[in-house]
């Protein structure tokens, strides 16, 4: 399958043997991809010992109605910066609509709205992001390492982090048990 020229609104799945332990079994929701570079939010790993109520307390936001949800490790870039991927039924200051599928918000107003019970109906929280400079992701797509899939809302919002990577491959019709860690040459 040829990768689309721009991957906004799709998921990148790390292939076995990607060569970077930070992306082992990574599932990355692509939010920006154009000639200037790319940005995605990782959904394949949780931040240990940190949950939403801890994060809200650090930001002096009362937890209110917010569930004590896990926090995803969004990627190695700016790991102290928070991002919320959510349904398009809520939009706030500087929210970015992503291919009509979800919205990316990175300001405190979305956390306050979630705590007040007035936020988006479905959401995930991440710290950090995966970023690529101009042409970098395009070059990576030409080598063994990433698989692209449309994924689903269920993959984003419902799937457990431990099973998300395998479920994403299965959803694309690929049995992850049959994937090889090395690409061949002909």
UniProtKB/TrEMBL annotation:
InterPro entries: AlgH-like (IPR003774). GO terms for cellular component: cytosol. Belongs to the UPF0301 (AlgH) family. HAMAP family: UPF0301. This is UPF0301 protein FRZ32_11990. It comes from Allosphingosinicella ginsenosidimutans.
């Amino acid at each position: 399958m040829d990768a689309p020229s721009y991957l906004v609104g799709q998921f990148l799945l790390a292939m076995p043997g990607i060569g970077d332990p930070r992306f082992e079994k990574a599932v990355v929701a692509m939010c920006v991809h154009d000639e200037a570079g790319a940005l995605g939010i990782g959904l394949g790993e949780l931040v240990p010992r940190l949950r939403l109520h801890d994060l809200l307390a650090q930001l002096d936001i009362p937890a209110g109605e917010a569930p004590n949800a896990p926090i995803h490790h969004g990627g190695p870039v700016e790991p102290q910066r928070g991002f919320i991927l959510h349904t398009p039924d809520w939009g706030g200051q500087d929210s970015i609509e992503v291919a009509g599928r979800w919205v990316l918000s990175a300001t405190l107003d979305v956390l306050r709205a979630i705590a007040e019970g007035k936020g988006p109906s479905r959401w995930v929280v991440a710290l950090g992001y995966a970023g690529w400079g101009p042409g970098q992701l395009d070059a990576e797509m030409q080598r063994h390492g990433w698989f692209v899939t449309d994924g689903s809302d269920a993959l984003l919002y419902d799937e457990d982090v431990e099973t998300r990577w395998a479920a994403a491959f299965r959803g694309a019709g690929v049995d992850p048990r049959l994937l090889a860690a090395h690409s061949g040459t002909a």
